[in-house]
Design a protein that fits this description.
Layout (H helix, E strand, L loop, with lengths): L33 H7 L2 H20 L6 H10 L5 E2 H8 L3 H13 L3 E5 L7 E5 L1 H21 L5 H15 L3
Length: about 170
């Protein structure tokens, strides 16, 4: 390294972000950087980051079972119905139709859901939750609540209710 390539005395050097190792209690990434303050002023970005953190935490829990958050969403939807066509799952959950096929295949392999002939149209098949799928959902309810509680720990109960009500209002918009 040439002398001209070295940082000036007392200058702060930064390790590339990719090389940084996660800490036990990570702080917001580069929270002191001006560009991050700009992102933190953007509500859409904060919602995105919160969604990522929530999904990662829940996926970490689900990982042992071989199920991911996308599978869980399908199971949770099926728990509210007597069965659904794959295209209905795609529309309701906002997943690509080809992704639904793979998700349902995975769930069938684990006996969490199954395809059955539709009572309305013998050419169609509906996806239904199996008894094992219902048990799985009951067993994961507590873990899901723990993930949510950890994520929302900085908020008091009234703030959590307000956040939930606001998110529902935004999510219910067409």
């Amino acid at each position: 390294m040439r002398a001209t390539d070295r940082p000036a005395a007392g200058a702060r050097t930064r390790e590339p972000a990719i090389a940084r190792q996660p800490t036990e209690n990570p702080s917001p990434i580069d929270a002191d950087e001006p560009w991050m303050r700009g992102l933190h002023a953007d509500t859409g970005y904060l919602l995105y980051r919160l969604g990522l953190r929530s999904g990662q935490a829940f996926n970490t829990f689900l990982q042992e079972s071989g199920v991911r958050l996308r599978h869980y969403a399908v199971l949770r939807y099926l728990a509210t119905s007597e069965g659904a066509l794959q295209r209905e799952l795609s529309t309701r959950l906002g997943y690509d139709p080809s992704a639904i096929v793979g998700l349902v295949d995975d769930l069938e392999k684990q006996d969490l859901a199954e395809r059955r002939p539709s009572p309305d149209d013998r050419r169609s098949r509906i996806v239904v939750l199996t008894e094992r799928g219902r048990t799985f959902l009951r067993d994961t309810d507590e873990a899901g609540l723990r993930v949510t509680n950890d994520l929302l720990a900085p908020l008091d109960p009234a703030e959590r209710e307000t956040l939930h009500a606001l998110l529902l209002r935004v999510a219910d918009r067409p």
